[in-house]
């Protein structure tokens, strides 16, 4: 099984958009190219959320403000003016497609792609919200509903989303009286051409039904936890007892979304990295579309004693890498074969072969260890194994990657059935921007 990205990815110059180098995403971080400069967040990119409570609900907490000052993140970020760019020699297959497909200076926004993204999201979604710590321990589960619609035409079209969060029973409820559950209504800032392309830096796969988005705050996610766990007992205190909230000043908030291959369902996963670049928490929405009451419970994240078992064996598949933005030009494709093995001492070994469309082949060998729900690979990358055939991958320490002039990526994998799995990987470049996303569809061989 491929735990890491198996395709090649191009690193582009932020000024003239020419291809500098092409690297396989699955190489260890110690050999990955690119220097992360400026700040991971910028105040001009803030996506603010507005919340409105039902009469029976307490108001959600105030939305945090993210400063663009580097010292707020707890680690030193490199400046592009320093001239410190690190491109170590790596023996990889060249990707001709990467150098031939570029996004124009005018932004090359595709209205058709934007509409397809909106059409993929429109509807009423019912499901559950899960909160995990970095070790894969589930902290909370909250029932949610999401209503998604559009208004406007052509390049003025916008996506409107309203999130409804089921609140726990009232502590003052009369015994024996079965009342209707309360739902807190939360208005998410509308999405349009500007926000989805420039600020959220979308990675969109319309045919495969997958996308990645970037956020600057975790305010909406904090509200889900406050309303769904504390309910009307929440008075907006800074540190509510027995409740883990996202960092007020996250360095990275990344959403990866994969749609079911069988049902009208999807999984949306959020990586929340704290100001020091260490994983703060992992959050998942598992949702089903339709007006009827959700049957999502039958597809919930069922746990198993040993979460690594579904990922073992040999997998074959195809990967597509696209640049960020609504235009989403394809820059690389590859056929992949991966084998994952676990020995009796808890040692993990995987061998990966990736063959690009021009016939070049890269072979990679990985090794690591398993402890509980965590797989740590040599090179500083970690997988947290979650229930339901899901894992989320991330650097053990983004700050360390930054200090060593290394790019990084965040990954979501979903095994919906024993024979098929999907993966989505978000890659960040030397400027702290999400420059590309890679989608994988893989089939188990044995």
Question: Characteristics of this structure?
Answer:
single chain, 446 residues, mainly beta, Lipocalin, ten-stranded antiparallel sheet, ten-stranded antiparallel β-barrel, 41% strand, globular, disordered N terminus
Tell me what the structure shows.
There is one protein chain. This protein has 446 residues and is mainly β. It has a single domain, classed as Calycin beta-barrel core domain (Lipocalin, Beta Barrel). It is built from five helices and 22 strands. The strands form three sheets. The chain has a ten-stranded antiparallel sheet with strand order 3-7-6-5-4-12-11-10-9-8. Strand 11 and strand 12 form a beta hairpin.
List the helices and strands and how they pair.
Blueprint: E1 8-12, E2 19-24, E3 50-51, H1 96-100, H2 111-121, E4 123-132, E5 138-151, E6 158-166, E7 183-191, H3 193-199, E8 203-205, E9 210-215, H4 219-230, E10 252-259, E11 265-273, E12 279-289, E13 313-323, E14 330-342, E15 347-356, E16 361-371, E17 374-377, E18 381-386, E19 390-395, H5 398-403, E20 408-417, E21 420-428, E22 434-444
Antiparallel strand pairs: 1-2, 3-7, 4-5, 4-12, 5-6, 6-7, 8-9, 9-10, 10-11, 11-12, 13-14, 13-22, 14-15, 15-16, 16-17, 17-18, 18-19, 19-20, 20-21, 21-22
Organism: Dendrobium chrysotoxum
Pfam families: BFA1_C (PF21053), DUF3598_N (PF12204)
Protein name: DUF3598 domain-containing protein
